[in-house]
Structure formats: structure tokens, C-alpha cells
Design goal:
It is a single chain. By secondary structure, this protein is mainly alpha-helical. Helix content is 59%, strand content 0%. The chain has 7 helices and no strands. Helix 4 crosses helix 7 and helix 5 crosses helix 6. The protein is globular, with a radius of gyration of 17 Å. It starts with a helix and ends in a 15-residue tail after the last helix.
Length: 135
């Protein structure tokens, strides 16, 4: 099954039209989602996200970037618990796509990844004051 990018790419070639898939996606975002996307773009310029190396055994690990984005989203959207964050990711396809999850991981996976972030203090390197986000 082809994804939307492949379908649109084929349409561009066959019909000779030119459009940016990202711009099309952003047209369907709510104001809250657009604000979150702008915040992510600003933060991700300054905070390097480490990548997890695959050791060749067991399940291939998730990338850290979607979990980092979800943690920022949890704070930005003032989501109280990780379970509510997971529910929001499952219910809001745009939020899931902005975070970068192909499918929503389990609560245990979120817990382990958030604990790893706490251990290396990655969130402390990020400006996380929600009072500064609303104008």
C-alpha cells in the first residue's frame, strides 16, 4: 500500500503540478497544532537529540525524536499524565504525525524513554515554561 507522499509524488510527475506536501499538511492543522509545530521548530534548532544505536539483537528501538516531541507536547498542551498523552496521540492523527510516531508505543515504552530523558536531563536543556508560550 502506498503512503500519501508516494501518491502525491506520482500525481506531481504525471500531471505536471508542483506542490509541497508539508504545506498541504499544515493547512489542516488547528491553531494549537500550528503553535506546537512552531515551538518544536524553535526548540529543535538548539537541543540535539541523540540517536539510539541498534546493537543487532532484539527489537529495533524507536527513535528518540518522537518521544522528545511528545514530552514537549505533553507540557505544551498541559496533558496531566502519560496515559492521557497516549490517548491524545491515538485520537489526534495530526498530533501523532507532528510527533513523528508511525504507531503509538505502549505506556511502558513511554515510561522508559521519559526516565532516560530525566537521567540525562534533556528536558532541563529546553525552555519549558508554559507561561511564555501564550501571548
Amino acid at each position: 500500500m502506498k503512503n500519501i507522499t508516494e501518491i502525491l509524488g506520482c500525481a506531481q510527475l504525471l500531471l505536471g503540478v508542483s506542490f509541497d506536501v508539508q504545506n498541504v499538511f499544515e493547512e489542516y492543522l488547528s491553531e494549537e497544532q500550528r503553535a506546537f509545530l512552531v515551538l518544536l521548530r524553535l526548540i529543535e534548532e538548539d537541543v540535539p537529540i541523540r540517536t539510539r544505536l541498534y546493537g543487532g539483537r532484539g527489537r529495533i528501538p524507536y527513535d528518540d525524536e518522537p518521544f522528545f516531541r511528545a514530552a514537549i507536547g505533553k507540557s505544551f498542551l498541559q496533558i496531566a499524565t502519560t496515559e492521557k498523552l497516549i490517548d491524545r496521540l491515538r485520537a489526534d492523527a495530526n498530533f501523532k504525525r507532528i510527533c513523528g510516531f508511525p504507531r503509538v508505543p505502549s505506556a511502558a515504552t513511554f515510561s522508559r524513554r521519559f526516565a532516560a530523558f530525566a537521567q540525562i536531563a534533556v528536558m532541563d536543556q529546553t525552555v519549558m515554561d508554559p507561561k511564555n508560550w501564550t501571548g
